Predict the 3D structure of the following.
Amino acid sequence: MIELIRTNDPVLLSWLTAHLDAAGVGNVVLDAHTSNMEGSIGAIPRRVMVLADDEAVARDVLAGCPAFADETEDDAVQPALRPGLAGA
């Protein structure tokens, strides 16, 4: 599995998982319980994971998110870097 994004935005998580499901892309949200237990102060973002075989479709779905570009500017969403792209 690969990490698609990290975020504390519950609306984005809901939108993304619903659209990934609609596209037939299996996904799982990790760290949701830990994030809730720490009091939702934003210290532990939730991670959306997808199978490596579904990465291209998942990134296409993510690119279609209307809020994604706005949130990236605020660092609320941290797109996962693919191996080999760090520093590119």
Summary: Helices lie at 10-22, 32-37, 55-63, 68-73.
